[in-house]
Each structure stands twice: as structure tokens, then as C-alpha cells.
Amino acid sequence: MESNVLTSTNSNGNLRNYDEVCDSFEWSQAEKAFSWAETGLVNMAHEAIDRHADSDKGNKVALYYSDQHRKEEYTFKDMRDYSNKAGNVLKDSGVTKGDRVFIFMPRSPELYFLLLGTIKLGGIAGPLFEAFMEGAVKDRLEDSGAKVLVTTPELLGRVPVDELPELEKLVIVGDDVKEDEKTINFHRQFEQASSTLDIEWVDREDGMILHYTSGSTGKPKGVLHVHNAMIQHYQTAKWVLDLKDDDVYWCTADPGWVTGTSYGIFAPWLAGVSNVIRGGRFSPEDWYQTLENYKVTVWYSAPTAFRMLMGYGDKALAKYDLSSLRHVLSVGEPLNPEVIRWGMQALNLRIHDTWWMTETGAQVICNYPSMEIKPGSMGKPVPGTEAAIVDDEGNVLPPNSMGNLAIKKGWPSMMRAIWNRPEKFESYFLAGDWYVSGDSAYMDEEGYFWFQGRVDDVIMTSGERVGPFEVESKLVEHPAVAEAGVIGTPDPVRGEIIKAFIALRDGYEYSEELEEEIRNFVKRGLSAHAAPKDIEFKDSLPKTRSGKIMRRVLKAWELDLPTGDLSTMEK
Ligand code: WTA
């Protein structure tokens, strides 16, 4: 394997001597970087924006925004003033500390002003991916008890306002918005709003952002993060993203996912760098053009996107000047060695894998610019965090053993709650101290971690987490569907695709139209990315005696594997 190791050509990384730093680093050292270390006054949005606005970085571009229709630039001073204005609009809508403000809209500068404005008020921001349909939107607003929803006229139709008694105000970002007692025209109020705002100073442990994410059972759960997470966002911006003052940084993720907030908003702005946000959908030419136009130096994306670029061919790539790029990172799914080889050949750069999850709030296991990369490995724990492979009782296993990838409690950006579900939160911790990730992995003798798979049935498709239960629940709402079981099957580009096994109700027969109708039913009810690409019809599905669909057996069928112990199966 040694010959496969990629040595670093970047000895100038912010983290130069990994082992030395690991030995001596304490998180309290990172706290010195924040103004609250002196003033005692805490608020993430202040550290990310206002502090820079008030410094010699005030006129530096904080946000380069573009999409098909808009191309705009905002300095840190602009971001301060506009997030203050947005904060004032929300304040007038009744938002106070601890209130949940959900933001359901496509990427646009306003989204960022409003998210920061929410945090400035001490509110808890809940970003929702624009592709969510009514069922997905309702579940999240209901569970969180959202008080205010920010959305657009186009998306409003997917919000079942009458079924959400706790929702007091709708802030609509768009043209020709009719106002009433409940509805606020954002643009009108924003124009008039003051650009000064008294920031709500909070406790480090106060809630800041709520991301809903999927598990293998039950509805999506609300993962709560607090202001304290900024310590890890800042420190990993330095060590992992390797951000320096002159960098132009682009994270391709939407803020509806944790990567789009932790690393699309907080980390780059805490580090005071210029942040590129590109709205709209993925297209290879558009992405290369974005890298070229903004002379992006540090780029954070995902394996599915890299694989798509790879598949698009190097001819397209050759049209663009990407010479500004110096550091490329990946997250969300296993980064195949083949993609790393493509990166070396096409970009002449190593792609650095990073592992973390919604629940960890920030990067945990990473490849660093100044470290050797073993293609296929996720790298090593961020200094100050302790990761290990543990068995199901929480005993640490020796190198090269497969087991649960676990992290020692106490890293700064750890989730602080699962909204409304304290027992669920507790269930993640083994032997008191170990957070168990749900991923299986092993660690080699040199301390590199290697991803093996999910322990549970969670599906990763195009880097997005889809809970099979949520899709199954939607499927059985269709009048033709008696039973449904959903699994992920391997796909060369998307990592996994969603496959549903379905048993029809009496009186229904398979037809192509029915199949399409069922697929669209999930698309309309949840979202396009949750809809099964592949549907297989069966007379009945394997179930346990208690009636639970055995996804393990479906998976074995699909992959032609032995079905294993079937003793609990209903005969
Ligand atoms: C998977 C995304 C392999 C993993 C930030 C994890 C990865 C889940 C990697 C979290 C990686 C994330 N290699 N798998 N580098 N990074 N994953 O919450 O299964 O959307 O548990 O967070 O993605 O997905 P989430």
C-alpha cells in the first residue's frame, strides 16, 4: 500500500506538525481567537460578521453571490448592515431569543442575511432545502414548533399553514407580496428597516441552529447546535480548510444541509475570508466557470460532484483556467481512490477527504494539507478530538478491527439535543462517554481511519442522507401500496440510489403507469431526492414476527448475498 501514499507538497499548511499539535492542543487555546474571550459577550454572528466589519477587513468582500440571474458582492460591512436589517424585520415579526425561525428558500443573498439576522436575535435558525415538498416541510415545522417561516411566493404553496398552529408569521421574500396579519413582505420591510441592531448576547450553550436529518427509524430528527460550535468551526477553518487571509473559498453545499451552514457560512466567515456562493443547480461547465471567475483558491465539495465532473471528461475542464486552486476537500460519502487519482491528474492537486456528520457539527476526521494521504482513508482526528473504534459495549478495539466509529464526548461542536427527544439523544452515547456515529470503520496502525459502511440502514445518495423509514411511510400512504421496504443499492456516480420493494394491495396490478405514479407520489410528498429510482414489485415482503420489514433481507436479495439468520422472520 505504501506506494499509494500521496506525500504532501504543501508544507505551508496552517497545521504543520500534526503529532506535536495533538500532544499539546486544548480547545481552550482556540477560544483566544474570539472577541468574547475578552468581552464575555457571545454571539456567533457577531464573530463571523460584525467583528470583521469593525476591523480593517470592513471593506473586504465577504460574499461573492451569483446565480443565473444575479451577480453581487457584499463586504463585511454590507453583511453587517444587511443582517441587521433582516434581524430588524424578524424582530418586528416577534422573534426573540430561543424562537425557531425556519428558512425555506433557494440560495440568495437574502437567505444569508436572514439566517445571520436570526442568530443575532438569539433565535434558532432552521434551514430547509428548497426541494422539500409539503410532507417534509410540515414534519419539520411541526416538530420544532417554528414561530416564523421565511419563504418565497413560489414555495409558499408547499407550506400547510393552516395545519401549523404554532406558526405565527410568514416572511415572504419576493415581488408583489400581499401583506396581512400573518404575512410580511420582506423586501418592503427590509428597505425601511434600520441597519443597526442590538445583538442579543447569549450563553455559549444557547441554541443557534437546528438541522433535521434522517435516521433509520422514525421521522427526521432535529439536531440542535449551540453557539459554542464556533470554536471548532474556526479551528477547522484554519487546520482543515487551511484558510488564510487572501483565500477565496467556495463550499458547494446548500445551507439546507449541515455542510452548507457549518462550512458554507460559519467557518469561512469566522476566519474572515471571501466566501463564494453559487446558486442554482449543478452543471459541470457552470462549476468550472465559477472556479475560474472568482479565482477560487480553496474548494469544498462532495464525491458525487467530483464523480460527475470526472464523467464529464477532461476536454471541458481544459477550457477553464483553474490555476488559482490550491486546496480541494471532499465530504459526505466515501471518497474513492479513483476520484483522488482524477484530482491528481485533472487538477494536479490532492483531494482531501473529511469525515463528519450533522450530529458532530463540524469536521472530525480529516486529511490535512501537510500530511500524507492514504487514498481511501478519511484521515486522522482533528487535534483535540478523540476518535476510536469501539464494540457494542463501548470497549475500544485495537488497530485493524472493524467496529463502531465513535468519538469521545466533549468536542466543542457536538450536538446538544435532539429536539423534543431527550431519550433519543442519550441513545447515541455508549459507556457514558462515546458518541456512536452509526458508521463502521477501522483504524490502521498509523492511526488513519477507513470507512466501511453504515451500521444502520441510512441511505447516502448523492451525499444526502435519506432515512428509509420516511420513504416507506410515504409509500404506504399510496392507496395501491400494502407494504414497502426501502434500501440503498450501489451506484457508481451517486454512491447509492434508492430502491423500493413494494407489495401491492389486493385489487391492484403492476403497470408502468402505476410505478411512475408511485414514484411521483414520493416526489410530490417528500422531495425528488427521496423518491425511489428503482422499484421492484413483490407478492409480499420479508418481515419479522413483529411485522417489521427486514431491510437486511431485501439488501441480501438485491446484492445476491446470503440472507443470514432468518430465525426472527415471519413464516
Ligand atoms: C457519511 C454530512 C465516508 C457517513 C457532513 C456519515 C462519509 C454521514 C464521509 C453523515 C466521508 C460523511 N467518508 N462517509 N468522508 N463524510 N459520510 O449528517 O455515513 O448528512 O455518518 O453529514 O455521511 O451525513 P450528514
From TrEMBL:
Name-wise, this protein is acetate--CoA ligase
Protein keywords: Acetylation, ATP-binding, Ligase, Nucleotide-binding
Pfam families per UniProt: AMP-binding (PF00501), AMP-binding_C (PF13193)
This protein's species is: Salipaludibacillus aurantiacus
Q: Where is the AMP-dependent synthetase/ligase domain?
A: 52-418
Please list the GO terms describing molecular function.
acetate-CoA ligase activity; ATP binding
Q: Which GO terms describe its biological process?
A: acetyl-CoA biosynthetic process
Q: Which residues form a coiled coil?
A: none
Is the Thylakoid keyword given for this protein? no
Q: Which residues form the AMP-binding enzyme C-terminal domain?
A: 470-548
Q: Record's superkingdom?
A: Bacteria
Q: What is its EC number?
A: 6.2.1.1
The Swiss-Prot or TrEMBL record describes its family as follows:
Belongs to the ATP-dependent AMP-binding enzyme family.
- Top-rank EC class of the record's enzyme: ligase
Note whether Ribonucleoprotein occurs among the keywords.
no
GO-annotated cellular components: cytosol
